[in-house]
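Hi all, long-time lurker, first post. I run a small reading group and we've been trying to get comfortable going from sequence to structure in the token notation. Rather than ask abstract questions, I figured I'd post a concrete chain and ask someone more experienced to write out its structure so we can walk through it together at our next meeting. Sequence below, copied exactly:
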Amino acid sequence: MKKVIVLGAGLVGGPMALDLAADFNVTSIDVSTDALAALMAQDNRIHTHQADLSDPSTVTTLVNQFDFVINAVPGFMGFQTLEAIIRTGKSVVDIAFFPEDPFQLDELAKQHGVTAIMDCGVAPGMSNILVAHGDRLLDKSESALIYVGGLPEIRQWPFEYKAVFSPVDVIEEYTRPARYVEHGQLVVRPALSDPEYLNFPGIGTLEAFNSDGLRSLINTLKIPNMKEKTLRYPGHIEKMAVLRETGFFSLEPIDVNGVQIRPLDVTAKLMFPIWEMKPGEHDLTVMQVRVDGQKAGRAYRYEWNLLDRFNTETGVHSMARTTGYTATVALRMIANGLFKRIGVSAPEHIAEQPDCVEFMLAGLKERGVVYIENHGIRAN
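-- Answer (accepted) --
Happy to help. Here is the structure in token form:
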């Protein structure tokens, strides 16, 4: 049985290890002994090891013993971790979502014969795959639009939001400028800008705002209009904008009674306990991907819709399911020899092989994560 190491045993890393244990010899690594103990209590087939993964040399030593790697460390240490993994010659699926350009590691991955799929979650991840798949199904693509959000099922004042992954990464969605493509040109707008309201069956009205979620799609696809928007319950945009503009998300230290303090650190201490998903609380994930263009001389649209909810049987949160299972299915795709592209691959590269897209959609459906496809002639 092939051996897989999962770096990170948090709310997403843990469910990934559990899913992979059905087909692989799995070892989970984390700095938290509590997280590892909780994982072992759920499945004693999983081996665990406590380690500080912030040291690349530690990563190298650990990874050398395995066939495949899942990288689920926090974004701030993701790039250095991926580089350490690639240097071992082990193929990897990465959901660290780090801010650095992963293609800086492409030549290194080719030198070591590594298949590395980065950003392989729900969005980025499946959103990229579906946009690229729609692009290939059309004769000519004109626009791609992604709406996506992870939300608590029950709205609670004041934020009506819960984070099932690193809250610092969530705050980046509110501070990092949003890049999108309009008429073939790169456009940069502030995050939280251009709000709009949309109605989603089974949820109701949500508000959408510009976020920097296109990532690699900006450079890998030539669709003249592309945009990603994050979804939240109505009213969330204004609250986050007030905090951002007041300076609560700032990384620049300020003097408070002679002590230098970063406002973000104070905000984190106050906000993160409120955002934490408590036992018994459930979440949902909603995503819509639209690709418009021309097919057989007619205006045509491909659309995929996802509405996923907390699994009450397994206790796995929706964001962990939709993000983590995308990565575990992709790892199986590599292990089965279906995806062999050497180097650093963005998720949209998976769409270059229709059989790989089918593999991903089928594998997710087996795990209850179902993308519903609609397509047809579009009225002008």
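A couple of things your group might point at:
The domain at 3-122+319-368 is CATH 3.40.50.720 (Rossmann fold).
The chain has a mean pLDDT of 94.
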